[in-house]
Amino acid sequence: MSSSAPTRRNGHNNTTPSTKPPPPTSTQSSPSPTASPLTALLPTPSEIALLLTYPLLLLLGSLYSTLSPQTRSSPYNPVTQSHPPSTAPSYFALKKNLPNTYFVKIAWFWVTTSYAIFLLTHPSHVMGMSWWMLLMTATFFHTWFEKLTGLLVAMAGIFVVYFLPRALPAMRDIVGMPGV
């Protein structure tokens, strides 16, 4: 077989054009949507619904207390900031109702717990905790070891100004020989 004749593979001539498009190479890329770095910071739809729950409950409660004739005509004691238990317009107007006790009175506990869970489960808590530990260490040393750190700074200054120039001729040319 001569080298100028086209070779046949699988019954097809190699010189005929292929009907299939060539596979994409590394320089050709299909358009893909790229996510902006800010989209990672935006809340998801379920998080938006969760975040809107509290303001919507406040709005509905305010509208109910304003529009309902039972709550408008009910006596209210401004000193105790509550309705008298015997004439309260509803269970939710009492100070000792379950949602008020566990979600308002102990709100500090719920907020602190949720914030601690967030800090401990968030991937970047390590960096935040390292800055917090640095701040607490600096505060600790400043408040408890103020005299010791002052002494260390003074000794470092004496070393740099008096003793280091005696050992390093290049520094002696800049600082001189203090104390001599």
From TrEMBL:
One of its GO terms (molecular function) is coenzyme A diphosphatase activity. One of its GO terms (biological process) is lipid storage. Residues 26-38 have a biased composition (Low complexity). One of its GO terms (cellular component) is endoplasmic reticulum membrane. Keywords: Endoplasmic reticulum, Hydrolase, Lipid metabolism, Membrane, Transmembrane, Transmembrane helix. Residues 1-38 are annotated as: Disordered. The chain crosses the membrane at residues 102-121, 141-164. Its main location: endoplasmic reticulum. It is found in: Endoplasmic reticulum membrane. InterPro entries: FIT. It holds the Pfam family FIT. It comes from the Eukaryota. It is a multi-pass membrane protein. This is Uncharacterized protein. It comes from Cladonia borealis. The lineage of its organism: Eukaryota, Fungi, Dikarya, Ascomycota, Pezizomycotina.
